[in-house]
Amino acid sequence: MDTIQSLGYNVYFNDSLTELVNFIQQGKYSKVFILSDDQTSNCCLPAVTERLDGVTPYDLIEISSGEANKTIDFCIGVWKMLIDFGADRHSLLINVGGGVVTDLGGFVASTFKRGFDFVNVPTTLLSQVDASVGGKTGVDLDSIKNIIGTFTQPKAVFVHPGFLETLPERQVRSGLAEMLKHGLIDDEAYWDELKNSDLSVPNPELVFKSVVIKNKIVLDDPLEKGRRKCLNFGHTIGHAVETFSLDNDGDHLTHGEAIAIGMICEGWLSVQKAGLKQEELEEIISVLTRVYPKYHLDDSCYTVLNSLMKKDKKNEGDNINCTLISKIGACAINQICTEDELCESLKFYASLNF
Amino acid sequence: MDTIQSLGYNVYFNDSLTELVNFIQQGKYSKVFILSDDQTSNCCLPAVTERLDGVTPYDLIEISSGEANKTIDFCIGVWKMLIDFGADRHSLLINVGGGVVTDLGGFVASTFKRGFDFVNVPTTLLSQVDASVGGKTGVDLDSIKNIIGTFTQPKAVFVHPGFLETLPERQVRSGLAEMLKHGLIDDEAYWDELKNSDLSVPNPELVFKSVVIKNKIVLDDPLEKGRRKCLNFGHTIGHAVETFSLDNDGDHLTHGEAIAIGMICEGWLSVQKAGLKQEELEEIISVLTRVYPKYHLDDSCYTVLNSLMKKDKKNEGDNINCTLISKIGACAINQICTEDELCESLKFYASLNF
Ligand SMILES: NC(=O)c1ccc[n+]([C@@H]2O[C@H](COP(=O)([O-])OP(=O)(O)OC[C@H]3O[C@@H](n4cnc5c(N)ncnc54)[C@H](O)[C@@H]3O)[C@@H](O)[C@H]2O)c1
Ligand SMILES: NC(=O)c1ccc[n+]([C@@H]2O[C@H](COP(=O)([O-])OP(=O)(O)OC[C@H]3O[C@@H](n4cnc5c(N)ncnc54)[C@H](O)[C@@H]3O)[C@@H](O)[C@H]2O)c1
Ligand SMILES: [Zn+2]
Ligand SMILES: [Zn+2]
Question: Where is the 3-dehydroquinate synthase N-terminal domain (chains A, B) (predicted)?
């Protein structure tokens, strides 16, 4: 697993915590801050701080864990702590956590004093395979996901597979959805490899391959003007389902669980509109339903889901713009879907027995 | 007065509201929003909307006027309105107002859905000469000025001198401080021209010359890594005085009034540390005191001012980094000043009789 070169920065896979130390030693930062959440503070932070002790002084900032806290209010709290700690434009923020910490920390750093350096140490499978490249930062507002954010690249990303050992099974499944998506939109051979693997334990080699695929797509289209939209497969419906679950379920869906539902629905739409073969859809459904339990959708939720999709940031004007796949391994962007079509696809999901 | 080319966008001076209409007609925007404050809604917005009616539909968003409202809370309000109005990444925001509207509107647009287009229609002298080029957006937090923001360029700026007719005298003086600063840091001939002009009414030719100077400096150093720091002359102390006044005075100082105080103090520091001649300082003081009334500083405020300066975003670590001038028309960046020196300069200002 080589170091991956992304948009002006490196993603380290081998002995990456040593690389983090090297990075800091070369960096001449005025101050170093570490952001974590109440979970990663326990299970991941010690491995980082034990390397940094004696190398650099640092201040710790902790947020509450969970998507519900990826908000502007938490940003305000972190900005205020940075003010109190005397952060300046020559400081460094190290984000140690899953996508919530890296997204929020990236946004905070990209806007504090008009931007200072940050690096990511992703500790979930999802953040390692997906949030580690792409330069998207963001937080939610009024439970609209990532509605406020910037495109800002970290100065480096350090992927340490060891962190995944403490990750709960549902979080592993969450990251897996993005890996499966990478196969579906771009690489049939990778999809086949995943399909035939034990998907219950994260595999560093497969993580690396996923990052290679995502990175290739991102380098092609850094600001999401065209090609990069392929990464949105499963996400138009998935995001709406995720928000819906966050608003309605005590034990809400993870991002990947919602995306898996989105990929089944948008897979069905792909058959209707983009040339995906029925047997390919069946293969996709068989792999996804092997990993992800059924989520109950009843008639009352379709209206809510549709209005959530309309607020989704990938839309242009009044149309709902989806990314579909034309076959396993190839995607079809800018597929305009009507409310009815989206609703039908949700009903298709609801009709499946598994 | 030609159109000025700034960082990837134009600043229009001639018949600029017609240029705004042209810009929108060429833009193919999905939606158009106009942000103004409760003052500019009355005195400036009608001139804009009467041009746009029949050209494009638009939605109006209004914030309360005044620096005290340049906050994250108002950003949240504007973001929520954009969500409700269905703004997307292909929308356009037109900021019609002074620096408060253009700074806040720029920040809102640069972070909503990770950024959509905005243009500025600056309606104060200050925002025409200063905020119209440079790409700085930002809002205040805990009364620390511009602590949250981005570097994002507008897509165009439209300077319409007619707006200045309704501008109160104190606001004219506020903008004038930046014009005088442009002369002091970069152009002795321009300083002489200003010195010999009637400074009580804004002069479009002089506005244009100021923007030319600022633009030259900004193009040299878009991200404020070095040269551009010269624009901070008067601002280390000026920002602290401005914040202090905002916190303590019912009828607080304008930005320019505070910067004028800062320029006298930092002029004095320039004599002590950067080679400015005593007679140049006297000339600067004579021009500034002709325009700006004395502000009362007593012994109790020096500690507060010093702690405000330490929080200023131009500092690197523990030092207070000032921009001074080595002569009229030439600046000296990265002058490290101690607390004592800054305090002495404030006492020098307090000792002046005018
Ligand atoms: N920026 C991007 O490109 C991008 C890409 C995908 C997802 N995201 C965002 O990422 C977020 C989801 O990321 P996530 O799934 O990592 O969520 P998360 O950060 O909430 O992590 C999930 C849970 O696992 C805990 N955790 C983290 N690391 C752990 C470890 N090593 N062991 C045990 N527990 C651990 C966390 O504390 C949290 O409770 C969403 O907000 C999504 O929008 C961003
Ligand atoms: N982005 C930059 O590069 C930059 C540069 C300089 C200053 N600024 C910022 O700009 C702000 C100050 O700008 P400002 O002085 O324009 O303040 P402002 O926007 O508060 O305007 C001053 C007052 O004048 C009113 N007003 C505006 N136009 C008017 C008109 N044509 N007629 C009558 N009244 C009018 C406003 O409603 C307000 O009450 C500060 O927050 C400062 O930080 C930014
Ligand atoms: Zn995703
Ligand atoms: Zn200024």
Answer: 61-173
